[in-house]
Amino acid sequence: VHSVTLSPVSSTWMPPGHVFSALWARTKPSISSVMTLKSRVLRPLALTLHALDTLAGWSIIVMLGVMVAVVSLQVLLRYALNNSASWTEEIARYLLIGTVFVGASIGVAKNNHIQVDLLYRYLPARAGRVLALLVGVLRSAFFASMTVFTVQMMQKMGAYQMTIIDLPMNIVYSVVLFGFAAMSLRSFWVLKVHWQ
Questions:
Q1: More confident position, 109 or 14
Q2: Closest CA to 46 of 185, 159, 191
Q3: Interacting residues of 181 by C-beta distance below 8 A, sequence separation 6+
Q4: CA pair distance 63, 30, nearest whole angstrom
Q5: Mean pLDDT in residue range 72-82
Q6: Do residues 99 and 60 make contact, with C-beta atoms less than 8 angstroms apart?
Q7: How many CB atoms lie within 10 A of CB 123?
Q8: Greater pLDDT, 52 or 150
Q9: DSSP 69-107
Q10: How far is C-alpha 154 from the chain's CA centre?
Q11: What mean pLDDT do residues 114-136 have?
Q12: What does the pLDDT look like over 146-195, one tens digit per residue?
């Protein structure tokens, strides 16, 4: 059995891979664990991550619910009344995009994105730890850079409107920005846990 960080029971490091519940327990900052943090940097970050987790979870529930309602309305209008609404496809597409990016932040928190962990099994423990830290640094840098690029894209697309609905596209891009920012913060937290 492999876990991502130091096991709470033993002090031996095991490579990332199969058991994510131990990582989730260690990387998800609960309110009680946040209150015991004495660091001036980590405590606000942990509070922010706790708030982001709550916001992400509820926003995914809302977006999925609205998406199901919109797609059901489209099916009803198209097949029962023989009249389809063009706006439903666009809204469903943007809600799916939002669900994916916000949900990806939860995937980063649980460290269960697709990864190849066969190499970790054959590396010595120290080399595996160094490789895991290197991957964590690269992942954090990628998410941080994508956050910056999303902000730049939003600035360039300023007045661009959606195709059918007369709303700005920056609404969609702001959800993508929230997802990348949450993934970036979460990735730094997972990197901190790996470093310990």
A1: 109
A2: 185
A3: 147
A4: 25
A5: 89
A6: yes
A7: 14
A8: 150
A9: HHHHHHHIIIIISS---THHHHHHHHHHHHHHHHHHHHH
A10: 20
A11: 81
A12: 999 999 999 998 888 888 888 888 888 999 999 999 899 888 888 877 77
What's the CA gap between 25 and 41, in Å, rounded? 21
Which pLDDT score is estimated for 136? 86
Q: Which of 107, 119, 102, 113 is nearest to 57 (CA)?
A: 102
Higher pLDDT, 145 or 24: 145
SS3 140: helix
Q: Is residue 59 classed as helix, strand or coil in its secondary structure?
A: helix
Find the Cα–Cα–Cα–Cα dihedral 33, 44, 152, 192, rounded to 10°: -50
Cα separation, 185 vs 69, in Å, equals 32
> Cα 196 to the chain's mean position, in Å?
22
Give the contacts of 2 (CB within 8 A, at least 6 positions apart): 14, 15, 16, 17, 18, 19, 117, 120, 121
Asked if residue 5 has pLDDT above 50, the reply is: no
CA gap 137, 162 in Å, rounded: 36
Cβ of 65: how many Cβ atoms within 10 Å? 11
On the CB side of 44, CA atoms within 13 Å amount to 2
